[in-house]
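Input (structure):
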């Protein structure tokens, strides 16, 4: 019986956050859309990227570097 790959909870939550931010930015006023919203959208995409990269790395020291980068960006979004 083949095992189904499960998605990490942190990845699911990062995608949900990105969807929320992208949806919210569509409804935001024009003066924020090309400044603040663009930054937030880029931060979300970078968080997802760093999580994927950290998950693919076996070396724990290098993996922690990418996890810390994602954590810093999440703090910026907050």
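Output (sequence):
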């Amino acid at each position: 019986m083949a095992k189904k790959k499960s998605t990490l909870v942190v990845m699911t939550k990062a995608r949900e956050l990105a969807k929320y931010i992208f949806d919210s930015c569509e409804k935001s006023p024009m003066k924020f859309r090309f400044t603040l919203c663009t930054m937030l959208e880029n931060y979300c995409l970078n968080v997802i990227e760093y999580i994927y990269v950290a998950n693919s790395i076996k070396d724990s020291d290098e993996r922690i570097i990418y996890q810390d980068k994602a954590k810093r960006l999440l703090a910026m979004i907050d």
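Notes: Residues 28 and 39 are 13 Å apart (CA to CA). The radius of gyration is 15 Å.
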